[in-house]
Amino acid sequence: MSGRDYSKLANGWEFIEDTAYDNESDLLHELRRQALDAGFEQGSAAQARFMAIQVRQIRARSVIILGTGALVETIHLIGALNALSTATPGQLTAVDSSAQGTVLIRKAFNRMQDHTHVKLRVVNAKADVFLPRLNPGDYDMVIVTGDEQNYSGAFDHAYRLLRRDGVLMLCDALALHNGASANPSPRSQTEASGQEHGGQRQNSQRDRALHMCQLIDDAFDDERFDSALIPVGTGMILSVKR
């Protein structure tokens, strides 16, 4: 592809995101603002919409989302689970290492609970502490967002928790929201002594990008899953348990 083709692709990606955002409800726009005011950056509107479509496509009944203040994604998932007509209510487990993040999620759900049959379980805990407590093979979908620590051991946890053909989604695979590239350049020298903080931030971004690159390699090497890299939002690794 030429540089012009990539430019068109980037413009198209921006159009997709804008369209998804414009089609979110007033409630979701309000919740986005509340989350941002509380210091929680929200994920891509197109990515959250894609999650919801996947829930309906595989007719998921039990979903886990790991994140830090992943409010918009949680509301999209509740809507998707609620749209599935079944005698058994769907269940969403939202695991958040931030107490403030769990408060935001509970408050948002309280505004919806009269209009949904979905059961929401909100847990304030670290993923690597809470996930081992769950029953194996009970879940249709596991979604990972937020802090880098949430991604640690994601494939091992998902393999144990998911049913056969269950779906694992790893968000932010291209590390774009941190301003880093998925193919980071070699480390450069610090330009001036007064730029230490900026240098530390760049190193953190670079480390995250390198981590996500390794995660992509691990996904395609893991024979327990069939995986694809999906160009939605800030990039997603979509893996299906064999």
TrEMBL record:
GO terms for molecular function: O-methyltransferase activity; S-adenosylmethionine-dependent methyltransferase activity. PROSITE patterns: SAM_OMT_I. Gene3D superfamilies: Vaccinia Virus protein VP39. Signal peptide: none annotated. Coiled coil: none annotated. This is Methyltransferase. Pfam families: Methyltransf_3. InterPro entries: Cation-dep_OMT, SAM-dependent_MTases_sf, SAM_O-MeTrfase. The keyword S-adenosyl-L-methionine applies. Residues 180-193 have a biased composition (Polar residues). Keywords: Methyltransferase, S-adenosyl-L-methionine, Transferase. The lineage of its organism: Bacteria, Bacillati, Actinomycetota, Actinomycetes, Bifidobacteriales. Residues 180-207 are annotated as: Disordered. It comes from the Bacteria. GO terms for biological process: methylation.
